[in-house]
Write a structure and sequence with these properties.
The protein is an alpha/beta fold. The chain starts with 9 loop residues before the first strand and ends with a helix. It has three domains: 77 residues, Helix Hairpins; 159 residues, 2-Layer Sandwich (Heat Shock Protein 90), CATH 3.30.565.10; 137 residues, Response regulator (Rossmann fold). Helix content is 39%, strand content 21%.
Length: 435
């Protein structure tokens, strides 16, 4: 027992001296060691849950891709009556809600597509604070305290805005009777000691974005679970439990660190440690508007899922493209070596013999993760060697995920996340073809 009355865990070591009939024992305080072990176990648990979640979300995205795609095709048919259209629209809304949930799960699993840019956090937060202030009750005092000389950060600004909105919403819900919400920014350098005591943190320079409320606060057993998906203390129907999970995954995927502190009855502070952009090049902005694509562009669509591949070919038909489908990277390579044989109709089949002077493809539309030993990235690189100038558009149920060899799809590559609407496919194809 400590002299002030609280218990202290000690690790005792010592010896018994027979001749002197006495003993020497030393007690070492292991409070910090046990705390670090708990943090490590918590980080490992979140990592395991993230891997499981990412795999499940990927499979659901493939299923939703088929559902949403076919509903889009139904809505495009002029002969569909008002009743059928109404049913399809209702189903489409539910499917899109499911797609949004899987996107949040992929964010937690650190498998969402990111478009990082060098960002002025003070400017972003200032713009967001004015907007978010209008959504808060009048009894909540929102204040922004910007740090001076703030470093630029390399981050996806859209996802950072979404993360900030989640923090504000959680703070609002924790202050049903009103209170104060303070958003602060500051520079911070994390050392090796901090990283050792906080598993998941890495030494280096960061910009800290902190949100502090004067709400109800949380007990330690609740605080330990706030980043787990579907964990929520809110009433049924008032939250999915994915908001903070999404923030956690986004920050970790961006190379940062997130830390929460709370006292029951006093409030909560959540700090986002965002990596400094010193010495890093400005990433290419992948969200540039693209002109309309050529209507009769020729596309090689590679997808190992039979249902999705058939759907994609129908969608490309509706969009006016000439298309050939391949069920694997190996089959796509064979098609590229032989070349497409143009037949009547916009949806093309693979011909067994190449006619001299066959027209090459304009774009390769390929899934990223495929069985058979060659992924979509490797296929794209091989295809571009065989046909220089070939445009590429990737798609995946978990875009941004690590490939088997540890590499990621490059941020400069265009990736269309599953599931997607037909108009999203059309825009992505147009942008890829216009590069």
């Amino acid at each position: 027992m400590h002299k002030d009355g609280h218990a202290v865990p000690l690790n005792w070591t010592g010896v018994w001296l027979e001749q002197e009939a006495q003993h020497i024992f030393i007690g070492r305080d292991i409070t910090e060691q046990l705390a670090a072990e708990r943090k490590l176990h918590h980080a490992q648990r979140l990592e395991a849950v993230g891997q499981l979640t990412g795999g499940i979300a990927h499979d659901f995205n493939n299923l939703l891709a088929v559902v949403i795609g076919h509903l889009d095709l139904i809505l495009k048919r002029p002969e569909a009556g008002a009743a059928v259209t109404g049913f399809a629209e209702a189903a489409l809304q539910a499917a899109q809600r499911g797609a949004e949930l899987t996107r949040q799960l992929l964010a937690f699993a650190r498998q969402q597509p990111l478009a990082p840019k060098v960002v002025d956090v003070n400017r972003l937060v200032d713009d967001m604070a004015r907007l978010l202030g209008r959504t808060l009750e009048q009894n909540i005092d929102l204040r922004f305290l910007p740090g001076s000389g703030l470093w630029p950060v390399l981050i996806d600004p859209v996802n950072l805005e979404a993360a900030l909105a989640n923090l504000v919403v959680n703070a609002r819900d924790a202050m049903p009777d009103g209170g104060r919400l303070l958003i602060e920014t500051m520079n911070a350098t994390l050392d090796a000691d901090f990283a050792q005591a906080n598993p998941g943190a890495r030494p280096g320079d960061y910009v800290v974005l902190a949100a502090s409320d004067t709400g109800t606060g949380m007990a330690p057993e609740i605080l330990d679970r706030i980043f787990e998906p579907f964990f929520t203390t809110k009433e049924v129907g008032k939250g999915t439990g994915l908001g903070l999970s999404m923030v956690f995954g986004f920050v970790k995927q961006s190379g940062g660190y997130i830390k929460a502190y709370s006292e029951p009855g006093h409030g909560t502070t959540i700090r986002l440690y965002l990596p400094r952009a010193a010495g890093l090049p400005l990433p290419e902005d992948v969200a540039k508007a693209a002109p309309a694509a050529p209507r009769r562009a020729r596309i090689l669509a590679v997808e190992d899922n039979d249902a999705i591949r058939k759907l994609v070919l129908m969608q490309l038909d509706q969009l006016g493209y000439e298309a050939v489908g391949a069920a694997s990277a190996a089959e796509a390579v064979a098609i590229l070596q032989a070349g497409p044989i143009l037949q009547a109709g916009p949806i093309l089949q693979v011909g067994p013999i190449l006619q001299a002077g066959a027209v090459p493809f304009d774009l390769l539309f390929t899934d990223v993760v495929m069985p058979g030993g060659m992924n979509g990235v490797e296929l794209a690189r091989l295809a571009q060697k065989r046909q220089p100038g070939l445009k590429v558009l990737f798609t995946s149920g978990f875009p941004g995920a690590l490939l088997a060899d540890g590499r990621e799809v490059a941020s400069a590559d265009a990736v269309l996340g599953k599931p997607y609407r037909m108009q999203q496919l059309a825009a992505a194809l147009a942008a890829a073809l216009a590069k």
